[in-house]
Records
---
Amino acid sequence: MYYLCMYLLAAVVSNELCKQLCMRTFPQLATITRVVEPSHDNSGKTDHRAYASLLRAITAFPLTSCIANPVSASSTSDNPAESIWNTLRRGFYWSSKGSDDPETPETLIYNLSANFCVVTEINLHLRKGWSGYPIYSSRFVRFRMGHPKSWKDLNYDFIEAQECADDKFIWTYTSPMFPVAQEKCLQTFNLPAPVVCIGGYLQIELLGWVAKGCDDKYYVW
């Protein structure tokens, strides 16, 4: 039995089965170019230990909310009263600036709670206007995850300056577009497969506006 176990372990190591399983389950890990373990000189066993431990750790993450802080909004109607910070506060809301073009996309960027997260779903809660007003929603939503082009760029307060930070990031994952129900309720968008976010940033892209304000411009809340 001992020799059989050793044979099977050798086959797993030589065929890089743990690495293949990691890459197949989480394609974002393909950005790993080399594994270094100073105390060992066998690269095959080093890769095996590293990918086996990584896969075990990723699949054992506890389910929890991983959004930490907002970074920027592509536009804000009234800052700070309708700031992106409000998207993390119950009973408050963010509002875009008005637009004449209903196809103008709006984006919200958030810093996640760690530079290495596994994301399975994202929840959004639409806001309805005051009595007699419609839901200021988008028709579709899309999600991106990635890392900054330069960490130095993030020493800037994009929210206070009311500037968009979209071009400060490299997005390594882009989700399909999801239809958004025009209802005032919590909506859950399940990603096609769990996504490893390396870098710790999430972009929410809102596409296609449906309602106009009293100034005859399109808004999304």
Note: The mean pLDDT is 82.
---
Amino acid sequence: LQDIFARRYDAPRNVQLLHPPAQLPHVLSVTKIKYPDHFRQILRVTPYTFDRITAKICTDPVFVNHSHCEQHPVNVQLAVTLYRFGHSGNAAGQSAVARWAGVGHGTVSLMTRRVMTAILRPDFMAEAVRFPTAEEKEAAKSWVEARSCKAWRGAWCLVDGTLIPLYDHPHWYGESYFDRKCNYSLNIQVVSLPNLCIVDFSYGHTGSTHNSSAWDGTQLKRDHDKYMEGDEFVWADSAYPVC
């Protein structure tokens, strides 16, 4: 028994598994340049957006470590994170993503954590998600008027909720994550312009949270008088209250 505890593993652990070549290098060096539409299908963003995000987060201190083992380039870490977020089920598992990227299983989680740490910095969020300027708001109003009527031009933005499914119910208060579609999920509120540019959002709500309640978490709802003027209003479906 002491020998078992000393060795911990009965089976040999020096077996090297043979894996096919990683696809990530080809995606970043070939697909991104020659086939941007395929690149967007794989990582869910355009090459331009991918490069902009990489440039914004590359100087974040989370990507600097004082070790003899250097981190992977920031664009590689971002690609792994986007690929993981763009899939669900087994395809988003560490093993599947690790094989696709040609990295270790634990490295997938490390990369995801680093990228999200950089993206959730207050300064990055303030620059990436902001309310429109006067010119952008007027352009949105003109778009609405051109496709509806003059009386509705004040609706320069729209809000809706989306459910992000979870792999399994959380251990703590798992029943509160059960949504109307019989999945365990998170409720995310998104406010955007007609051109789909996101200007506000709210997160952290369980799947059972009604849209009318999750809507209260948005900055637009909390500071309504600051961002809405005169006859301006927000496009929404019947799940939201009339204010």
Note: The longest strand covers residues 157-165.
